[in-house]
């Protein structure tokens, strides 16, 4: 007597697919929880939303290379960037990147917030 194994194969493939989706969702939830803990419990901005606090934008998108205190690291020191570059130059670098820094790390609105905030660093 021959058994049809096709239904079992379909169930196995669907099960693997569901497991991958659950894993993917869980990893992103873990990352969101970790970010919330690092930000002192502050609400994490979802992708597509615009952050309105320039310091939070910097902490989330720039501090990894430029340091939490703007003192530099993999990226240059920004503590006096406002006295070295104009607002237009700062905005151009944020939007288009420079050297090893890629452009497009933040939205246009967030780039404008960062530009205004960094321009005051003198």
UniProtKB/TrEMBL annotation:
Entry superkingdom: Bacteria
SUPFAM superfamilies reported for this sequence: Cytochrome c
PTM section of the record: Binds 1 heme c group covalently per subunit.
NCBIfam families documented for this protein: cytochro_C550
Organism whose genome encodes this protein: Pseudogracilibacillus auburnensis
PROSITE patterns, sorted: CYTC
Organism placement in taxonomy: Bacteria, Bacillati, Bacillota, Bacilli, Bacillales
Pfam family, one: Cytochrome_CBB3
Any single GO CC term annotated in Swiss-Prot or TrEMBL for this entry: membrane
MF terms (GO), sorted A to Z: electron transfer activity; heme binding; iron ion binding
Record-listed heme c binding positions: 62, 65-66, 101
Keyword list, A-Z: Electron transport, Heme, Iron, Membrane, Metal-binding, Transmembrane, Transmembrane helix, Transport
Transmembrane segments: 6-27
Cytochrome c domain residues: 49-122
Protein known as: Cytochrome c550
């Amino acid at each position: 007597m021959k058994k049809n194994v096709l239904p079992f194969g379909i169930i196995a493939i669907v099960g693997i697919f569901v497991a991958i989706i659950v894993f993917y969702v869980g990893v992103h939830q873990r990352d969101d929880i970790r970010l919330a803990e690092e930000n002192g419990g502050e609400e994490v901005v979802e992708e597509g939303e615009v952050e309105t606090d320039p310091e939070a934008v910097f902490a989330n998108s720039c501090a990894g290379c430029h340091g939490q205190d703007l003192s530099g690291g993999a990226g240059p020191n920004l503590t006096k960037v406002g006295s070295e570059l104009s607002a237009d130059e700062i905005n151009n670098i944020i939007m288009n990147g420079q050297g090893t820094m890629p452009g497009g790390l933040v939205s246009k609105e967030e780039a404008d917030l960062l530009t205004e905030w960094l321009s005051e660093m003198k």
